[in-house]
Amino acid sequence: MPFVQDRFAIGLWVDPPRTDTHYKWLADAGFNLVLAGFQKEPVAQLFALLKKYKLKGILWPQGDDPTKFPTDPNLWGYALQDEPSATEFPKLKARAEAIAKAHPGKLAYVNLFPNYASPAQLGAPDYATHVKQFIETVRPAVLSMDHYPIFRPERDGRDKYCENLAVMREQSLAAGIPFWNFFNTMPYGPHTDPTESQLRWQVYASLAYGAKGVLYFCYFTPQGDEFPKGGAIIAADGTKTRHYAHAQRLNAELRALAPTLMQLTSTGVYRVTPTDTPAEALKGSGILDLKRDRVDPPGDYLVGAFRHRDGRRAVLLQNYRFAYSAWPTVVFDAPLESVREVSKETGKEAPVRDESPNMPGLQLSLGDSEGRLFLLP
């Protein structure tokens, strides 16, 4: 019996101390998955907190014998390794099979390198080969990776992030499994401290490519020379940083959209750059055109297209700019009265509202990095 993901995963790297206050904060911020392995309090304490706050967990177990791993109804599974080389895949296969035998239905979780890892790190000539070999060898129930784009005035890593998501999308669809990804939440190394808009950009780009889980790096500020500034969602002294409110707002939107997101299968991703002709770039997406008022700059968008489990289509439209809003005139390929938007407040479907009714066509506003999800016949 393989692991089956039953909800959109909103998770984190570096779990907080296993206290009632910290786990209440997790739940209040909208998280539903804890990768537990950085704290030393008893596992029984973790299980009690998961139950109390209706959270799921993935445990970094002690030892190599799965028959001795602790288990719990709220435990999704066990983390085996972070960023393995392809040379380690056969060993991971054996460990995953042992877990499946000892704990049917539990996840054997492995997180992969990003696409900026070197061939020497990957143990493969290129990134796509690395991911494909992992799937073919280990046969995971979930595909996962971490990628932390650079947001600097002189260096923009967002296209590389999307290239990584494209590989995950392609390989997860081929294997028939969901994919998750970690994204950056804090300053370290060459990374500036992300703004709320930059966090939102990473999350909605992942959704456009069909992710069924997003994980924050990091939740609790890790110790060590790599993180001298601190600045995760929870500071090293246990207090909330400004990222707590950022995550709380983002996660509220994710939880509202989640029931619909879990019913969608990606059918395409479309990029509209400022130099593109939108009507050409969007062919087959469900959106015929994204027009602009003459005073507005050329559009910059990411569009994910999907098939809903009930047979309808879906389109996620994201403003690719993280510093400016957008006001496109949107032309769907279906009559407007048949299009519905999924509310990021309630999760319910509602007719699409024209936000500038005094202008011709359907005007929709997109805040900086914002994504909006629509359902089409």
What does this structure look like?
- By secondary structure, this protein is an alpha/beta fold.
- It is built from 9 helices and 18 strands.
- The strands form 5 sheets. A 6-stranded antiparallel beta sheet has the order 11-13-14-18-16-17.
- α3 (89-102) runs parallel beside α5 (127-138).
- The longest helix has 20 residues, at 242-261.
- It is globular and about 65 Å long.
- The mean pLDDT is 97.
The CATH superfamily label of the largest domain reads: Glycosidases
The span between the termini is: 35 Å
**General form:** globular
CATH C-level class of the largest domain: Alpha Beta
Order of helices and strands: EHEHEEHEHHEEEHEHEHEHEEEEEEE
Please tell me the CATH architecture of the largest domain by its name: Alpha-Beta Barrel
Which range does the strand content fall in?
A: 15-25%
Radius of gyration: 21 Å
Count the E strands: 18
Largest sheet: 6 strands, antiparallel
Count every helix, treating DSSP H or I runs of 4 or more residues as helices.
9
Averaged pLDDT, please? 97
Helix and strand arrangement:
Elements: E1 9-13, H1 20-28, E2 33-36, H2 43-52, E3 56-59, E4 75-82, H3 89-102, E5 107-111, H4 119-122, H5 127-138, E6 143-146, E7 151-152, E8 155-156, H6 158-175, E9 179-184, H7 196-208, E10 213-217, H8 242-261, E11 264-272, H9 278-281, E12 287-291, E13 301-308, E14 313-319, E15 329-332, E16 340-342, E17 349-351, E18 371-376
Parallel strand pairs: 1-10, 2-3, 3-4, 4-5, 6-9, 9-10
Antiparallel strand pairs: 7-8, 11-13, 12-15, 13-14, 14-18, 16-17, 16-18
